């Protein structure tokens, strides 16, 4: 059973935060409003959609975290490599993440989609895609989705083989304080339009980069492999 958690403020507070978020959106003057809905998958099934994303952009200047690669790893080869040939080869378990979400407006302003940090738990096989955010936003063009992670941990039950040996149990992504990840979007939300954004954690890929001794994954590898799709 998949459990996911979300801090749920009162309806009045949520409304107030939405208004504040929109008011702080700089020069957005399109006039109308639409709805941005965000869902998440541990590893979304390949439905042929092209992710509107590329490598993670640089960390926020407000953040003191530094994303580095402590050991040699060809993440580009991992990104381009095909996934396992059968579903039976996929890791089984779940991944838990704590983070906050923002849409990046055309003028660079951040529009909050969550009330601070939320904690979400999804299965590693992408069986379900829980809705993690739904927010009214100004109808205009958005150029990115910003995710600020404070924790990512996978609990692998089976199916992960590293160097010919099975790896199970908790696996942590190494985060120094926070991990800001911005993925580019070409998203135009019209007046009254509902747009769904999928965050695919792509756990099946970055789990292959785990150090089987420390059971950790480099944050840069995770950041490169997380993808965002508008659908």
Quick recap of the structure?
The protein has helices spanning 11-23, 75-80, 203-206, 219-225, and strands spanning 33-41, 92-105, 110-112, 118-123, 131-138, 141-158, 161-162, 165-166, 169-173, 179-188, 194-200, 216-217, 227-230. It is mainly β and 231 residues long.
Task: Explain the overall architecture.
The protein has 231 residues and is mostly beta strands. The protein has one domain. Helix content is 13%, strand content 39%. It has four helices and 13 strands. Strands 2, 3, 4, 6, 9, 10 and 12 form a seven-stranded mixed sheet that branches. Strands 5-1-11-13 form a four-stranded mixed sheet. β2 and β3 form a beta hairpin. The longest helix is centred in the N-terminal third of the chain and has 13 residues. The protein is elongated, with a radius of gyration of 18 Å. The two termini are 26 Å apart.
